[in-house]
Specification:
Order of helices and strands: EHHEHHHHHHHHHHHH
Structural class: mainly alpha
Shape: globular
Number of helices: 14
Strand order of the largest sheet: 1-2
Radius of gyration: 19 Å
Number of strands: 2
Low-confidence stretches: 1-8, 22-106, 328-336
C-alpha cells in the first residue's frame, strides 16, 4: 500500500483539477441523491445485506478535507501493491454465501489482454482467489466503469460528474463507507490497517474523508469490486435469479448488481422497475436530453432503460477479452 499524497505537494494544475472535480461531484451528488433517493435498498430483501447505499457521507466535507488532508496517488508501474498481487487480509464470510456455489477461480486460465492495465494483474488475481469471482469478470466490471488515461489504462482517479462515484470501481460514497464498516470485507481490513475504522466498524474521528480517498487506491478498489460482486451475486442467487457460473454470465450479473445496486438489480431481473424509476436511472447515466431521446424511440422508459443497459453491457462488459480460451473453460455443473 502506498502512502497518501499531501494536497500541498500537488502542482497548481493538479490542485485546480482536484478542487474542481470534488466541488462538482459534491454539488451533483446532492442533486442526484434527491432525485434517485438515498437508499436503493429500501425495498430490497432482508437477510445478509450487501453494502447499503446511504446518504453521501462525504458530502460537504470532502473538499475541505482534500485541502487540509491527503489523497491516494495514482499507481506507479512496479508498485508492489499492484504488480506484486499482495492479497488483502479481509475475506468474505463463506458461511454467509452458501447459496452461491463456488466459482472456482483456480480453474480459470491466467489473465491475458490487459495491455496497459497489466500492472493490475496481481491485484485482480488476488481478489479472484479470495472471492472466487473470475479475475476476467472483475476486470470487465472495472473496464466498463473506469475512465481512461492517455495510454489507455484505467484511471484510478475516475470521477462521475453526476454522482459521488469515484475510483476504478466508481463506488458511491455511501456504499464505500458501508463496505469499510463490514468486518467481512477486504476494504475493512485495509481501512483498519490505515487506522480509519475500528474492529467494530466505527469510523475513526475525522477519518471519513481519508476513508473515501481510498477509492483512488487501485488495490482497495479492485478488492472492493470483487467483494461487492460476490455479495450481489449471492443476493441474486438466493432470490432465485438464474446467473450461471462461466465468466460471461458472472460478469454480466455482477455488473448489473454493481451498476444498479442490489435493490434495482432485483427489480431489473424481475421486470418490476416502474416507469418513474427507470426514467431516473436512465437520466442518471446519460443525462436528461439523451434519456428523453431514448424514451421517445420506444415510448416507454422501462424498455428504453433496459435497452440502453443491455446494449452497454454487451459492448463494454467483456470478460472474454482477458482469456484466450474462455469458450472451453470448465463450468460448474450446478450452475443454473
Amino acid at each position: 500500500m502506498t502512502q497518501p499524497v499531501e494536497y500541498r505537494a500537488l502542482t497548481p494544475q493538479q490542485r485546480a483539477r482536484v478542487i474542481l472535480s470534488t466541488a462538482r461531484a459534491e454539488t451533483a451528488s446532492q442533486l442526484w441523491r434527491a432525485a434517485l433517493g438515498t437508499d436503493v435498498l429500501a425495498t430490497a430483501p432482508t437477510g445478509w445485506s450487501p453494502p447499503k447505499f446511504t446518504q453521501n457521507a462525504g458530502s460537504g466535507n470532502a473538499l475541505a478535507a482534500l485541502l487540509a488532508g491527503s489523497l491516494s496517488p495514482a499507481p506507479q508501474p512496479g508498485s508492489s501493491y499492484i504488480s506484486g498481487g499482495v492479497a488483502p487480509t479481509g475475506s468474505i464470510d463463506r458461511a454467509k454465501t452458501s447459496a452461491l456455489p463456488e466459482i472456482m477461480a483456480g480453474l480459470h486460465p491466467p489473465l491475458e489482454g490487459l495491455g496497459a492495465n497489466t500492472r493490475y494483474a496481481g491485484a485482480l488475481q488476488a481478489a479472484s482467489q479470495r472471492t472466487s469471482i473470475p479475475a476476467g469478470a472483475i476486470a470487465a466490471i472495472i473496464d466498463a466503469e473506469a475512465a481512461r488515461l492517455g495510454d489507455g489504462s484505467w484511471n484510478p482517479h475516475s470521477r462521475n460528474p453526476r454522482s459521488s462515484a469515484a475510483g476504478l470501481g466508481q463506488f458511491l460514497s455511501g456504499t464505500w463507507i458501508s463496505m469499510a464498516r463490514d468486518k467481512g470485507s477486504a476494504l475493512h481490513a485495509m481501512a483498519r490497517d490505515h487506522g480509519l475504522v475500528s474492529a467494530t466498524g466505527d469510523i475513526a474521528p475525522g477519518a471519513r474523508s481519508r476513508l473515501l480517498a481510498l477509492r483512488y487506491d487501485p488495490a482497495a478498489a479492485i478488492a472492493a469490486v470483487a467483494d461487492y460482486a460476490r455479495a450481489n451475486l449471492e443476493l441474486l442467487k438466493s432470490k432465485g435469479i438464474a446467473i450461471g457460473h462461466d465468466p460471461r454470465s458472472v460478469a454480466r450479473a455482477a455488473y448489473i448488481g454493481h451498476h444498479l445496486g442490489p435493490g434495482d438489480a432485483l427489480r431489473y431481473y424481475r421486470g418490476t422497475l416502474d416507469q418513474e424509476r427507470a426514467r431516473l436511472l436512465l437520466t442518471a447515466q446519460v443525462g436528461s436530453q439523451r434519456a428523453e431521446h431514448y424514451i421517445s424511440k420506444t415510448g416507454n422508459p422501462i424498455i428504453s432503460h433496459r435497452n440502453w443497459l443491455d446494449d452497454y453491457i454487451a459492448k463494454r462488459v467483456q470478460p472474454h477479452r482477458y482469456y484466450s480460451n474462455i469458450n472451453t473453460m470448465p463450468r460448474n455443473s450446478s450452475a443454473s
